[in-house]
Design goal:
This protein has helices at about 15-25, 35-40, 90-105, 120-130, 160-180, and strands at about 5-10, 45-50, 65-70, 75-80, 110-115, 130-140, 145-155, 180. With about 190 residues, it is α+β, with helices and mostly antiparallel strands. The chain has a domain at about 5-110 and about 155-180: Gcn5-related N-acetyltransferase (GNAT) (Aminopeptidase), CATH 3.40.630. The protein has an eight-stranded mixed β-sheet, with helices on both faces. Helix 3 (about 90-105) runs antiparallel to helix 5 (about 160-180). The termini are far apart.
């Protein structure tokens, strides 16, 4: 099997329309083009997209998107989405790992996020990384009325956390390869 290369990087201004389209497809249009433009321009925001050189996905410019806001010593993960055609291939785990590595590189101490109570797949993903549920926001999701669970992960600034992420990244490359994906080198971190 020939492996296709994956990249995670900030989107270019030319990719913002594709970002909005992925948002519409995955989240029903949570953020606008202007909102994503602000995220891209903000030094307090880390906005990353997954792209591939795979021939079969050339018509699909973005496979995934993740974002966090750096607020004081906290990474508030605002978005994590993978195109539904590519669920179950390990892309969400890889993206979350890179977001956490970026947060650690910024010297942030913890990460937090909200997740729909019924989103068991996402909850399992966050728990794999050590996130723990610490609270609930009743009726947080207006379209469904579902509660949001609040998850926290402490210790991003500890040296052991970066080592854990690096070890996880090397192990995870095997899972991605099983689905025809290749990630060369260390986990991409931009300081």
């Amino acid at each position: 099997m020939t492996l296709s290369s994956l990249q995670i990087k900030p989107p270019t201004a030319d990719q913002l329309e594709a970002v909005v389209e992925l948002d519409r497809h995955c989240l029903g249009g949570m953020w606008s083009l202007d909102g994503y433009q602000r995220e891209l321009e903000s030094s307090n925001s880390e906005l990353l997209v997954i792209t591939s050189d795979r021939e079969a996905v050339r018509s699909l410019p973005l496979l995934g998107l993740g974002c966090f806001w750096a607020i004081l010593e906290e990474a508030h993960i605002t978005l994590l989405m993978i195109h539904p055609d590519y669920h179950g291939q390990g892309l969400g785990q890889w993206l979350l790992g890179v977001l956490l590595a970026q947060a650690a590189a910024r010297g942030l101490e913890r990460a937090t996020l909200e997740v729909r109570e019924g989103n068991t797949g996402a909850i399992a993903l966050y728990q794999k990384f050590g996130f723990q549920a610490i609270g609930r926001r009743p009726g947080y999701y207006g379209t469904t009325g579902e509660d949001a669970l609040i998850f926290w992960l402490n210790g991003l600034h500890q040296p052991g956390f970066t080592l854990e992420l690096d070890a996880w990244h090397h192990q995870h490359q095997h899972r991605l390869a099983q689905h025809g994906w290749q990630v060369d080198g260390p986990m991409p971190i931009r300081c």
